[in-house]
Amino acid sequence: MKIKNYSAYIFSILLLLTSSCNQDDVNNPTLSDTDLTVYFWGEGDNITGIAWEGYDVLIGETLDLSLQVSPSEDTTVQWVDDETGEVLSNDLNYTYAPTEEESKRVNFIATRPSGYEKTVVFNFRGNLDGYTSRINEWQSILIPQGTQTGKFTVEFDMIPSKDIMDGVVGILDGIATTYSDNSCIVRLNPSGKIDAYDDTGYAADNELEYHAGLTYHVKMDVDAVTMTYDIYANKQGGDVVLIGENYKFRRKITHQDYWSMVAGNFNLDDPGTHRVLNMEITTLTQNQAPVFLPVDNVVLAEGAVLDVEIEAVDPLGGNITMEANNLPQFANFVDNGFGSGVITFDPYTNCGGCDLGIYDITIVATNGVESSDLTFTIEIVDPNAAFDVSADAADATIWSGGSVDATWTQLFGGHVATGVGGDDQVVSVMPFALPEIPEGKRVKSAVLKVNVINNNSWVPVEFDVYAIAPRSTSEVLSTDYFAGDYDTDATAAGIQKGFIKNGDALGEFVMDDPSGLTLATFINDQYENGASAGEFMFLRIGANRNDMPLWAHLQFDSSESAATAPILTVTLEDE
């Protein structure tokens, strides 16, 4: 009786299990032919995109691919050469083994009994070595030596397929999708020469032409901390040419992880590609501390307000915090996060010059591992304080016959017997750039100073100062010449009569105060009439007579004389 009961129990369990299996079959519907899918063996991702992007395989090496299909029962497969139609394989496995440089397309076709097909297109490229660029399709290759954060060298060979093409090789911090992603770029320029990117555009310090089928070796010495690089290139067996020195990164980033390449077709009817091979990177140093973008020293007038942007970059892309140390009372720093901050300078007005002086500014950036300092100075100046404007290097001596000489290291007035204009009367003309005048200010005084080194004459003569209206360039013109009675030149304004007289002692001559006010009025009138900072006004020193057949020789230092060059001292005042 016990045996029978036990057997009945086992039978019930088996019946229950059978019923459960049948129920599972009901809940898992059979896949239809249109559900046909192709996968890599052992992986679940769909492979269509990967297959189309393709594979680069070196000649003499092999690539083995293993696929799976679902549903697999009764599904037949073929690997078919797209160009010839030849069936290369009838199973899920295929080996690509190039024997020559080529591009080959192979279609993997899976077919169901109903005739429904699923096709996956594989692109294969057989290369001698390295990579072949693609038209308007970026390729990015991870730097095998790891992230570069300090100094390192980049070397590679490139072979253009055309004499005129547009191909680049870059170094950057991630996957390239456009040119501006790259920090360092070397280009096969559509002009037929090799150039590189410097800060805001392509440039080349020296020319190197390229030609189809020839190999060109490129070396870049890169400094990720300063975000600069030097570029050298040479044709195989040829002399090394310096393409660029101390070029600035395009993308300002302090860690580099990838190579990139692409070929363009802009304005090219027959674009070419280039092969890039023998790619090597040698790490020289590594940096872990944050890197600041440089900030220039600042000069700010008391009462003005200035915002200075501060930016630091972490070599490994980490988070950065910043703080300012020992700021002056008129400064405030705000850390905006992500390595960005702003320091605002707002020196007080009407406090008796309480903020005047030079201040050291220090900003500290920390990434949790290391810190870096940025130091610069700000000088707070009296907005009405005098400042000097130097004569431009285009200052010149003019002969009455129209000859102009801007090359002498001295300027002349009176009558000379030598020079490009021969034995003739002369005047000197000095260009001065109009200064930037802050809003609400005007010129109070403008005083000329020159250093006389020769003053001899056989006839009585005085040398007067005139001002000539501004022009866009500093070039002295023959029409700037005039000699004669004071303030009788209709094309210029008389500033000081008898600035220098025959027989005066040698040395420094400074315009008198009334004349400084007269020149200030002239300058203010020029601004009111539309002149702007950066244009050039001209001061002329010439004789008060035009009948000097005999020696009358005034000679003073020109702009080339450095410390003793002509100077215009300008003082401002409130309008």
Summary keywords:
575 residues; 8% helix; mainly beta; twelve-stranded antiparallel sheet; Jelly Rolls; 3 helices; elongated; Immunoglobulin-like
Describe the structure.
Keywords: Signal. Residues 1-23 form the signal peptide. The protein is mainly beta and 575 residues long. The protein folds into four domains: 34-127, Sandwich (Immunoglobulin-like); 131-283, Jelly Rolls (Sandwich); 291-381, Immunoglobulin-like (Sandwich), CATH 2.60.40; 387-574, Jelly Rolls. It is 8% helix and 47% strand. The chain contains three helices and 40 strands. β16 and β17 (228-235) form a beta hairpin. The longest helix has 26 residues, at 2-27. Mean pLDDT is 89; it is low at 1-26.
What's a quick, concise take on this entry?
The protein has three helices and 40 strands. The chain is mainly beta and 575 residues long. Residues 1-23 form the signal peptide.
The N- and C-terminal alpha carbons lie at a distance of 124 Å
Total beta-strand segments: 40
Assembly state: single chain
CATH class of the largest domain: Mainly Beta
Radius of gyration: 40 Å
CATH topology of the largest domain: Jelly Rolls
Class based on secondary structure composition and strand pairing? mainly beta
The helix content, as a percent range, equals under 10%
Helix count equals 3
The portion of residues forming beta strands comes to over 45%
Q: Tell me the domain tally.
A: 4
Overall average residue pLDDT = 89
Ranges with pLDDT <50 over ≥5 residues? Answer: 1-26
**Biggest sheet record:** 12 strands, antiparallel
- CATH 2nd-level architecture of the largest domain: Sandwich
State the shape. Answer: elongated
Keywords: Signal
InterPro entries: Ig-like_fold (IPR013783)
